[in-house]
Every structure is written in C-alpha cells, then in structure tokens.
Amino acid sequence: MPEYRVEEDTLGPVKIPATALWGPQTERSRNNFSTGQFMPLVVIRALLQIKKAAAQANKELEQLSVEKADLITKAIDELLALDDDELRKDFPLRVYQTGSGTQTNMNTNEVIANKAAQLDSKSKILPNDDVNHGQSSNDIFPTAMNITASVAVAELEKAAQHLIDELKEKQKKYWHTVKIGRTHLQDATPLTFGQEVSGWVSMLEHDLEYLKSLDHTLLELAMGGTAVGTGLNAAPGFAADIAARVSNVYGQKFTADGNKFYGLAAHSSLNVVHGAFKTLASDLMKIANDVRFLGSGPRAAYGELNIPANEPGSSIMPGKVNPTQAEAITMAAVRVIGNDVVVTLASSQGNFEMNVYKPVLIDAFLESAELLRGTMQSFADKLIHGLTVNKERMEALVDNSLMTVTALSPHIGYHDSAKIAQAADEAGSTLREAALKSGKVTPEQFDEWLIL
User: Fold this and answer.
1) pLDDT 10s digits, 63-79
2) Cα dist from 127 to 25, 72, 105, 123, 183, whole Å
3) According to the 3-state scheme, what is the secondary structure of the chain?
4) Cα first-last separation, the chain
5) Residue 184 known to be catalytic
6) Closest Cα partner for 273 from 356, 140, 165, 157?
7) Which one of 121, 176, 184, 315 is the catalytic residue?
8) Are 344 and 360 in contact (CB under 8 A)?
C-alpha cells in the first residue's frame, strides 16, 4: 500500500498520508502550522453536529439531494461515535492557525467527505459544495465557539453549586463554633467559623448568579451570516433550522435571530462571560488561601483547621500534609486570570467584518471553564468535604486575644479599653487580668460583658 496519495486543491497537488481521512487543505495547514496545542475536540464535535444539522436543513430546504444529505449524516454519526483518541487521528490541526478557524472548518468538511466515500464509493460528496453548502468558516466557526462555550459554562455552574453545597454543610455544622476574627492580618473580634464560611458561600452564590445572568448571551449563533454577515449562499430558513437542531442536541435554546455582522466581527458574549470567570477565580483564590492559612501548621502556625491528608506532602519530611487541593485551585485561578487577558485582547481584534483571533479565544475560554470546573469539584470533594475544625485551638486563640476588649468599650469607653489591651500586651497577661487590675471592671462585669 502506498505511503501517500495525491489530491488537488485550488493551489495544486498535495501529498497526503494514504490512510488519512483529511484532504489537501488540512494537509497544508498541518505542515504550515505545527506549533501549540491541538484544536479542542469539543470544538470538533460541535462542528460535526453543525454539519449534520446543516445537511438535514439543506435536505428539508431542497438544497441537497436526499441521498447526499443522508450520506453526510451517516458519515458524521460514525465520526461522532468515535472516542476522543480515535477522533483526534483525523483532526490534527493546531489552535495557532488562520484566525478565522477556516482550516479546521475545512478539516471537518474533508474528513466528512472522505468518510462518506468510505461508506459509499459511488456517491461523490464534495467538501465545499456539499458538506459546506450554505456555510462559511466565518459563521460556522463562531457558531461552534458559542455552542461549546455555552455547554462549558453549564458544567461550570454545576461545579460551583456543588462547592456551595459542601461549604453550606460546614457553615451549618460550625455555626456556633467561636473563633477569633482577623482584619489586616491582625487579631480582631470573635465570630463563629460558620459565619466565616457563610461569607465564602455568599461570594460563590454571587459569582454563580453573575454567570447565570449571562447565560443567554452565548445562545446567539452566527450561523447564517456566511462570509461577511449578509447570508450570501444560505437559503432562507437555513440558519433557524440549524439553531433548532443543535438546541435539541445540546439541550440549550440557541437562536439564529441575532445580528450576523456582530456575530462574525465581535465576541463580546465570550468576553463578558470570561470576565465572570475571572471574578469567580479571584474569589476562589481568596477562599482557598483562607482555608490553607487557617489550616497551616499543624503546630507552628494558625492550626485552626484540619485538612484531609490526601497524599504524602514531602519527599523528605515524613508525615507532612500539604494543602494540595488549595494549591491546585489557586494555580488554576492564576491561569484563568491570565486567560482573561487573552480573551480580552482577542475579542478586541474584530477588524472590519471579522474577528481573526477566534481559535485562541475559544481555546483560552474553554481552558478556563474546564480548569475552574475540575478544580472546584476536586476542592469540594477532597478538601472541603473532609475539613474539620480544631476547636481547642480556636478557643485558646480567643481566650488569649486582646481584641475581645472591644466588648468593654460601650461600658467603659474606647480610651480606657485601649489602655487595658495595651497593658495586657505589655505584661503578657490575659485581658481579664489586665481589666481587673485597671480597676475599671469588676469580675462580674467582665464575665457578663464578654459573653461571646
């Protein structure tokens, strides 16, 4: 069997690996752009679903013969049935290619056409004229972007809710467990650990609300705009038919009613949603850092929380336990915040009728969504779920705190209360001892006024 076959495109002949399902445009891109990660397979699967919907819509609208449309559909179904490793073999293109995603669109068209030829060698399916009928890379690729983004956000929202639910369990369990508060990294007045956790819960509930309020922005599909937004070569009703079909596949209410010039030139929806990712990442950074610092020690630091031991923490120090889940989620947060710069800059590059940073934009967006989803799930299951408090340590820190003097202030005044706290600090005594020594407070008053 020959190692290569030769096919032609508009630029001339191209040698292609004999067993590859792709064609000449894919081969050119494969050789011209060999750096960086591969195009995400979720984008490929979305493109396949769009091509399937397009073939069925073209059949209904009598733009393609029944035989061709059914064969395209059958070929796509076989490709969609492949696992990721098998599917990747025929989708070898990188993110860093043409900024419109044209080469990945053509990769999809060529693979479908050649798969159709395998199924029926007598029926000639053409990548451009048949598989891509009524379409352009300029509207197909951003349609795939919004579909994959919408699905990714839905999964992210589930993970956020799961973390909220786990934190609420801790909030309820430790609502009455008193501990010392801290502001400016210094001792402050007491609160309960449940109250502290409730603040974390509220942060995440707000973040989830922000995300959900933006869900609808990803449902507008550029499909039907074709090359520059005018819809040239797309039959009337074609885009609406595709939107309805992919809505059924993904369980989302996609629409093709939006402005197509916007759909091709701007990716504001992805940009604003990723801004909510950044906000979520910032809050997760704060929560995870609070947890790992409150759990630091166990004997030479705060030591208020007991973190589950998921794996050995050191290659040299036996018995060491590290807050690895907190480290993972904070690293993910850093990446997401960096990706927000990528998404922002890429979204700004809508020169004239088309944005030409589409592949890097959707790759960064999907990476952020998956990083947040996965690390939140793991943080909830492998850290928060098994988290317990060191009640004795919390009580000792409260008892030794000077800032409980704040409870005396309404009774003896701010100035005298401050003197008591300073005297206790200088003498290394307890607050109670200093208060009684000051003569401003009786033992009975101290016990009554400092009930927590």
Assistant:
1) 999 999 999 999 999 99
2) 10, 10, 10, 13, 64
3) CCCEEEEEECCEEEEEECCCCCCHHHHHHHHHCCCCCECCHHHHHHHHHHHHHHHHHHHHCCCCCHHHHHHHHHHHHHHHCCCHHHHHCCCCCECCCCCCCHHHHHHHHHHHHHHHHHHCCCCCCCHHHHHCCCCCHHHHHHHHHHHHHHHHHHHHHHHHHHHHHHHHHHHHHCCCCEEEEEECCEEEEEEEHHHHHHHHHHHHHHHHHHHHHCHHHHCECCCCCCCCCCCCCCCCCHHHHHHHHHHHHHCCCCECCCCHHHHHHCCHHHHHHHHHHHHHHHHHHHHHHHHHHHCCCCCCCCCCEECCCCCCCCCCCCCCCCCHHHHHHHHHHHHHHHHHHHHHHHHCCEECCEECCHHHHHHHHHHHHHHHHHHHHHHHHHHHCCCEECHHHHHHHHHCCCHHHHHHHHHHCHHHHHHHHHHHHHHCCCHHHHHHHHCCCCHHHHHHHCCC
4) 84
5) yes
6) 157
7) 184
8) no
**Contact yes or no for 9/24 (Cβ under 8 A):** yes
Q: How many CB atoms neighbour CB 322 within 10 A?
A: 17
Q: For the whole model, what pTM was predicted?
A: 0.96
Q: At what angle do helices 358-379 and 137-173 cross, to 10 degrees?
A: 20
- 173, 178, 65, 78: which is closest to 126 by C-alpha? 65
Q: Tens digits of per-residue pLDDT, 120-166?
A: 999 899 999 999 999 999 999 999 999 999 999 999 999 999 999 99
- The phi-psi region of residue 226 (left if phi > 0; otherwise alpha if psi is between -120 and 50; otherwise beta) is left
Spatial CB neighbours of 436, under 8 Å, sequence gap ≥ 6: 442, 443, 446
User: What are the tens digits of pLDDT across the range 388-439?
Assistant: 999 999 999 998 999 889 999 999 999 999 999 999 999 999 999 999 999 9
| Closest C-alpha to 308, from 203, 380, 204, 374 | 380
Looking at the DSSP bridge assignments, the partners of residue 351 are: 354
pLDDT value, residue 452: 59
Confidence of residue 350 (pLDDT cuts 50, 70, 90): confident
**Active-site position among 34, 213, 268, 314:** 314
Count CA atoms within 13 Å of residue 434 on its CB side. Answer: 23
